[in-house]
Amino acid sequence: MIFNTGIFLMFFLITFSVYWISNRFLGIRVRNAVLLLASYVFYGYWDWRFLVLIVFSSVVDFSIGKALMKSSEGTVRKRWMLTSVILNLGLLGVFKYANFFAGGFQQLLESIGLTVSYTTLNIVLPVGISFYTFQTMSYVIDVYRREVEAETDPLNFLTFVAFFPQLVAGPIERAAHMLPQFRKALTLRPEHIRMGITFIAWGLFKKVVLADNFAILADQFFAESSTYQSIDVVLGVLCFSMQIYGDFSGYSDMALGLARLLGLEITLNFRTPYRSRSFREFWRRWHITLSTWFRDYVYIPLGGNRGKVYRNLMITFVLSGLWHGAQITFVIWGFLHGLMLILERRLSVVKRIIPPVLVIILIHLFWLPFRAESSGHLLSLVQGLNTFSGEWKMWTIIEDYGLIHLTLLAWCVLIFRYF
C-alpha cells in the first residue's frame, strides 16, 4: 500500500475518522490502539508475515528498555544494550545482506576453481526494516545513556515503532520526540489541516509529477547505458538525481502531512539539498534523520571530532552506504562522500577553490555508483563519461518521451530550484 493510490486514500479516510472519534469520545489509549491497528493493517498489506518481525523487534526492545530502567549496574546495563544492538543488526543482516554474502561466497569458491552448487538464499526484504530497526535500536541506546526514560506503556511503544506514515520510508524518529506525543490528548486544529494538506499536495507533486516521470528516462538509460557517451551519462544521471530526490523527499513530505492530519509532528527529512554549497552542507539537508542517526550513534561513539577524525568519517559514510543496500556500489558511494568530507576538512583551500556549482555536479555524478547494478555496470558508466563521440542516444529516448513533456518538467525543476 503506497501513498499515491486509491486504496491508501480509502484506508486513510477510515483511519482518520475512527482515530479522531476515538480521541474525542473514548480517550487516549483507545485512540492509540486504533492507530496501532491501522499501522499493522498498513504494514501487513504488503505481506502479513512481515508483522511477525516488527512485533518481535518492538517487544524485545520494549522489554530491554524496562530492564535498563530497573538496573543500575553498569555491566548489566551494557549487556542489555548490546543485546538489542546485536539482535537488531542481526535481523537487518539476515534479511538485507544474506543473499549478497551467499552469492559472494559462491563466486569466491568458483574463482579458485571449486565448482559448487550453492543456492543463494531467496530471502525477501521486509518493507521498512532498515528504518524501524534503527528507530528501536536508538531508543534502547538512549535509555542506556539515560537520555530518555524507558517507556512503561507497551501500547505507546508499539505505536511509536509501527506509526504508518513514516514506517516505510522514514524519517527515522527518536523516542524523545515521538513518545511524548502519544501520551497526551490531541486536538485537530485548522492549521494542522492546512499544513497537512499542503505537505501531502507538495509530496504528491514531487512523487507523481517529477519522480515518476524522470524515472521513465532514468530507467531506460540505466538499462542500456553500456553503449552511451559522456552527454548521455550526464543526462541519465541528472534524470536519476531528480527521480531519487522527488521520490524520497516526496514520501517524506507526504508522511509529514499525514502525521499533521493525525495531530502529530514528525521530523523534516529534506531541506533543499541540491542548493548545498559543500558536501558538509549537503548532509545537513539530505535525509537529515539518517545523517543525524549516524552522527549520534556511529561517528561520535567512534571519537567524533576528537582523535582520528578522518577514520571516523570514512567508517561512518562507508557504513551509511552499506545501510542502503548489499552491493559494493553502495559502499563506493559512501566512500566517495566520506572522501569529499575529509578533503573539505583537510584542505580548507578546497572550499575556496571548488565553486558551489562543482559541488552539485559531483553530488549528481556520485549517484552513478548508487544507481549502478554492479561494479561492472559502474565501470561501463565511468567509461561512458570518457567517450565524446558517437550517436547521442539519450536524444532518441527524450524524443520518444516527448520534448514538450520534458520541457515542462525542466521548467518545474528550475522554478522550484530543486525544491
Write the SSE topology.
Blueprint: H1 6-25, H2 28-44, H3 50-70, H4 74-111, H5 129-144, H6 154-162, H7 175-183, H8 190-223, H9 230-261, H10 279-285, H11 288-302, H12 309-324, H13 328-346, H14 348-353, H15 356-365, H16 367-371, H17 375-385, H18 393-401, H19 403-416
Helix pairs in contact: 1-2, 2-6, 3-4, 3-5, 3-6, 4-5, 6-7, 8-9, 8-18, 9-17, 11-12, 12-13
Could you characterize the architecture of this molecule?
By secondary structure, this protein is mostly helical. It is built from 19 helices and no strands. Helix 8 packs antiparallel against helix 9 (230-261) and helix 11 packs across helix 12. The protein is globular and about 70 Å long.
Distance between the amino and carboxyl termini: 26 Å
Taking the sheet with the most strands, its summary is: none
SSE-based structural type: mainly alpha
Whole-number radius of gyration?
23 Å
Number of DSSP-assigned strands: 0
Number of helices: 19
Return residue spans where pLDDT drops below 50 for at least 5 consecutive residues.
none
Mean pLDDT: 86
Per the principal axes of the C-alpha atoms, what is the gross shape? globular
Binned, the helix content reads: over 70%
Taken in chain order, the helices and strands follow as HHHHHHHHHHHHHHHHHHH
What's the assembly state of these chains?
single chain
Strand content: under 5%
